[in-house]
Amino acid sequence: MFCSLTCMEKSLAYITLTVSVYHLKHVTVNVENGSSLNLSSLLLTADMTASLGWLSALVAGFFSAHVLQKLCFPYFWRDFVFLLTVIRYGMKLELFKLTSRVCTVLDRFIQQAQRIPDKPFVIYDGNIHTYRDIEQRSNRLANIFLDRVKLKKGDCVALLMNNEPDFLCVWFGLAKVGCSVAFLNTNIKSRSLLHCFNCCGAKALIVGADLIECLDGILPSLLEDNIQVWAMKSQSEHTQVNTLLDKIDAASDQPVPAALRATTSLKAPTLYIFTSGTTGLPKAAVITHLQSLKAAGGFWAFGATADDVIYIPLPLYHSAASLIGIGGTIELGATCVLKKKFSASQFWNDCRKHHVTIFQYIGELCRYLCNQPKTDMDKVHKVRMGVGNGLRQDVWREFQSHYGDVKMCEVYGSTEGNLCFMNHIGKIGTVGRSNFFYRLLFKYDLVKYDMIKDVPVKNQYGFCQRVRKGETGLLLSKVSALSPFFGYAGSKQLTENKLMRNVFVKGDAYFNTGDLMAEDHEGFISFRDRVGDTFRWKGENVATTEVAETLGLVDFIQEVNVYGVEIPGHEGRAGMAAMIVRPGLTFDGNKLFEHVVRDLPVYARAHFIRLQEVMEMTSTFKQQKFQLVQSGFNPSTISDPLYVLDHLQKSYIPLTDSIYQNILSGERKL
Q1: pLDDT tens digit string along 528-537?
Q2: Best label site of 124, 125, 439, 558, fewest CB within 10 Å?
Q3: Is 390 strand, coil or helix?
């Protein structure tokens, strides 16, 4: 046992043994010498013997307690220190409630721009943009928004831009005049894009120069609704699309009145971030100042400092990159390297070039990096930490084997959710950690879930049942003053649909995450699966009902059931659609391909089609997905006709055993 102890434990053990041996040795000497006792011996026999005995017992007690703690509560001190860190940050937010002034993420940025004006804030495409640069350019845009666009405090403005410094300048400029900003997913198209404007009530749209074509087909509808369209260009081919870049140089870089951005409530909305759900179309999650500030503390909680350089290859329209990435960089006063689009081949060269120490990820990103050819330079970098979510155990281990001992910090939490788990221990395969103290602050439960019926299991009294440790259950988070749920913009029914009421007692309310999780006996929490009508592919949530509604517009399709299937070596699930062809019509792979590519984002496209004669239903008259998911897409075990998306032939072609094997081996890319 001694050989397995830590250095501190060995030191304590050594001190204990030394003191005890010294004590016993002198007692023996005193007995043998008898009458030759002197003053020194008498002192040892009396006072020092008692002192050494007390010291020996004390050290032995500390040693025993330390060993007991390591054996029975191995993560106690790390949990305790991490919880203190979280509480310390939370208390700062609580103090805002006692004052009439909330220090927002934007306020924090302005403070940093005054404190460290010349420090690089964003490095993009090899160019350095300091805190002062972004501050002054966002001031110019804020003045344009006031004087030319005529925006007012409280207006909502939609932002459709790819990753670039001007995304931040527009975002901050709008926030400085008191506008809330709706981040639009650059992959959504036509009908879904129009829906986004309607549900958040945007008065204007700011669009990136490289995304003007996304307005084709919907620009007349936007103008009919009196929505101003402004492009980050110097000139526009569309006469009804206004331009911003040609006005920036003449605009003042002086701050607009601070009163415009000031807020007295942490619960005031500042952003709308769109998330896929089960209602068929994207939902605008309400992001308050409270949520923004909590997310901005993520890097800090994991031990990041102002000296870190953070690599952000994720899209800014997602909360991970904008709230945790940019917000976290601002909170620290650090530097971030912003990438327009993730590139596996450029990733490590970028990290070495810019001395990156922390990077953001999703599981799929790490898998792409693991698939890169091994080189002698793989472990030559300064990256010490990755922060993200969705990292599979096998990819996690392979990543650390390939690129060195990088600490991977998993974070679990949906954009609109009221619960967050953080894996501060770094245990492979877990998304977070809980303990007695965490449960005191954040009330959550895992309840039994019937995968076949697609509903929570209820007891005889109609209440949910908690699962035992180690069992998989549906994760629910209690809605309370400490963990509020702000819901979605638009219809109140959207918000209500995400809540479960009367879960354990009459009158309670819980946020339904839609995730199946498991918590082991040590308190580590692992993600198991998604339930219902949503799955993840390419790092994005796919709403099956939205895909089904889009496919249902094809004339030869009578009924369609969309779900996700697992593919070895890939994160998440690839889209698959079981469908019934209308009587008298035939399946047309070319027509379906054209429709899917035109109207659905890349990550939401159905890769596989299964033709059926009858669509199975559950006992609650919902489409049966469980059996379809379980059967997968293997043509040798499925008698129904199967088709696969083929970009070379621009069609859905029959899925043969040969193609199936090529998909499994990775020769055929999805």
Answers
A1: 877 866 788 8
A2: 125
A3: coil
Three-state SS for 398? helix
Q: What is the pLDDT of residues 236-260, one digit of tens each?
A: 888 889 999 999 999 999 999 999 9
Give the side-chain half-sphere CA count within 13 A for 230: 25
User: Which positions ≥6 away from 659 have C-beta within 8 Å?
Assistant: 644, 668
Give dist(CA 185, CA 540) in Å, integer: 10
Q: Please state, in angstroms and rounded to a whole number, the distance separating the CA atoms of residues 658 and 670.
A: 15
Cβ count near 253 (within 10 Å) = 15
Determine if the pTM surpasses 0.85. no
Q: Residue 377's pLDDT is what?
A: 95
Report residue 391 as tokens.
């990292």
Classify residue 260 by its DSSP letter: G
Query: Which residue in this structure is represented by tokens 């490590």?
Result: 348
- Our CA angle for 114, 120, 125, nearest 5°, is 140
Radius of gyration of the chain (CA): 30
Burial (CB count <10 Å: 0-12, 13-18, 19+), residue 605: buried
Token pair listed for 575 = 């889209």
Q: Alpha helix locations (H) across 434-518?
A: 436-441, 492-497
Among residues 572, 591, 579, 589, which one has the least CA distance to residue 670? 572
Strands 455-456 and 449-450: antiparallel
Across 488-573, the runs of DSSP E, i.e. the strands, are 499-501, 509-519, 524-530, 534-537, 540-543, 557-565
User: Which helix (H) or strand (E) is 644 found in, with range?
Assistant: strand 642-646
On the 0-12 / 13-18 / 19+ scale of CB atoms within 10 A, 84 is: exposed
* Segment 342-396, tens digit of pLDDT: 999 999 999 999 999 999 998 888 988 998 999 999 999 999 999 999 888 888 9
Q: What is the pLDDT of residue 21?
A: 38
**608-611 and 574-581 strand pairing:** parallel
Residue 666's H or E segment, with its range, is none
> b vs e for 281-296, b when ≥16 Cβ sit within 10 Å of the residue's Cβ?
bbbbbbbbbbbbbbbb
Q: What is the dihedral of CA 260, 262, 264, 270, to 10 degrees?
A: 80
| Cβ atoms 563, 576 nearer than 8 A | yes
Q: Is 425 helix (H, G, I), strand (E, B) or coil?
A: coil
Q: Give the separation between CA 176 and CA 193, rounded to whole angstroms.
A: 26
Token pair 């004006």 is at which residue? 117
Burial, 460: exposed, middle or buried (Cβ in 10 Å; 0-12, 13-18, 19+)? Answer: exposed
b or e along 31-55 (b: 16 or more beta carbons within 10 Å of the residue's beta carbon)? eeeeeeeeeeeeebeeebeeebeeb
- pLDDT at position 263 over 70: yes
Question: CA separation (Å) from 482 to 90, 219, 440, 443?
Answer: 10, 43, 11, 10
